[in-house]
Amino acid sequence: MPFVNKGFHGRPRQPGSGQVPPGQYVVDDFPVLTAGRTPRLPLDQWDFTITGESGAQLARWTWDQFQALPREEISADIHCVTKWTKLGTKWTGVSVDTLLSGINTDAKFVLALAEPDYSTNLPIADVRDNKAWVAFQFGGEELAAEHGGPARLLVPHLYFWKSAKWVRGLQLLSHDQPGFWESLGYNNYGDPWREQRYQGD
Amino acid sequence: MDSTALDGNVAAGILANIFYPEMTVAATSCAHCGATRQLGELDAYVHSPGVILRCTSCEAVLLRVMQNHNRVWLDMRGISLLQLELPEEDASP
Amino acid sequence: MLNWLVATVTKTINETPDSVSLMLDVLGWPGHRAGQHVDVRLTADDGYTAERSYSIASSPSSNELELTIVRLDEGEVSPYLTGLAVGDQFELRGPIGGYFVWDNTETRPVLLLGGGSGVVPLMSMLRCNAELGSTAHMRIVYSSRTQDDILYRDELAALSSDTRDVIITLSREPSSQWSGRRGRIDRELLSRLTNVAEGNLLCFVCGPTPFVEAMADTLVALGTNPNNVKTERFGPTNGG
Fold it and tell me: Do residues C29 and C216 lie in contact, with contact meaning Cβ atoms separated by under 8 Å?
């Protein structure tokens, strides 16, 4: 029988219901979790690249080029592996479909690469067909550095560690390659609806 | 230094359940730049339930550890050398 | 092994309007060293848990464990802990941390720098130094905001002796009745206190991360051996 502190409620939250994955609590704030110092990258040094399976660069955009791409407004619920869920978050970004549109590839997986030394792996099907974006605005404002600005990956249907902050590119892969957290016990796929938080879940 | 960093001391709890000597005073050598420091002095980032320890000189990751229930994942590739002091009663003759 | 133990509140002390010291009876407590901390875990009835670390304020020779909690209104854990009554219980594990500790076998002179609630583990060191009749010279410089925020004020005054020196500086005290130091701990003060000729001065710095980093950088810039500067950063705010 686990110890319970009577009268302890914790941060304001509502238990999961219907639209919220199992084990999650809905919060109003936006907690920041980090694995390193917040990168501060000047926009004139920022670029986003797509690298092929052989290592060849297939596409590259500078910040200005990126801003000129068609952008979308996204409204999504986001779910962190540490159990908080935020409903109806609003983002602006470029769809990964747009970024991959000029590229012919048989790759089955991608590895998202981010500052300073972060990576996260996904099946390519999970970043296609309107499921993933590179987002640079949150709530109509420039994405704050502590939340991943200037741009982060946004993949709301998976746990939020897959939405890599400070993203700089996608590496196309024929074989899956575990990223930063996936190689340290987090689940390789991360579906919140099946509570796939850690390896073996 | 970054205002989100804490001291390696925050990893003391999770490491105490893995190693029996006191780990925060162990000397760690960074595999990337060679700097040697006590683990307790390293820059620590808590990404619950994981802790990341980084070199205070070059910011390379020295140690990553994650615990879920009774399973622990530990990556110490970033430490090229670990020096520990065992209690006196465990000293070799 | 660090197991979760049950702590029972035996006494509560209102240190300041925003902080409470809890005297605890902990079944199975193995003892601790000055400067160590504990992890506290609270569990709600829906299974939600929150954990925080708190420095131990009591000396190792004290019969009871003392934690001093500063209440942050937006915090999850501190409002609960500061509202506890005698007889209430919660889980904790420890003692934790061999890096930020002072033992009375240490004979080198010591400089303690505390910002806000960073004074808590330093208090454990001062109490240890006093209770065990240590001859090691120990000086504390404690930076706080106003008189109302000073933790352990009367006890700090009583601890002053020929081998223990207490300096309190207030950054935001409006009243002219405070005759003590004002302002932050600056380079000029540290320069006077760290006589570089005493190359074996041991420094402990604790408090919010920006405070600790500023103090540590200044100490090293003044010539203190970095190996003799131990830090404990509490994060951008004081936790909560």
Answer: no
Query: Measured between alpha carbons, how far is C36 from B2 in angstroms, rounded to an integer?
Result: 24
pLDDT digits (tens, 9 = 90+) for C188-232: 999 999 875 566 899 999 999 889 999 999 999 998 988 899 999
CB pairs under 8 A between A and C: 36
CB neighbours of A97 closer than 8 A, spacing ≥ 6?
A128, A129, A130
Q: Can you give the pTM of this predicted structure?
A: 0.87
d(CA A171, CA C91): 46
Q: How many of the other CB atoms lie within 10 Å of CB of C2?
A: 17
Distance between CA C158 and CA C16 in Å, rounded?
18
Are C145 and C171 contacting, i.e. CB atoms less than 8 angstroms apart? yes
Which residues in chain C are closer than 8 Å to A15, comparing Cβ atoms?
Answer: 46
Rounded to 5°, the CA angle C139-C184-C172 comes to 120
Overall residue count recorded for chain A in this entry:
201
What number is the ipTM of this complex? 0.88
Token pair 């952008």 is found at: A71
Q: Return the exposure string of C49-66: e unless at least 16 CB atoms fall within 10 Å of the residue's CB, then b.
A: ebbbbbbbbbbbebeebb
Interchain pair C76, A3: CB under 8 A: no
Q: Is B68 on the interface with A (CB under 8 A)?
A: yes
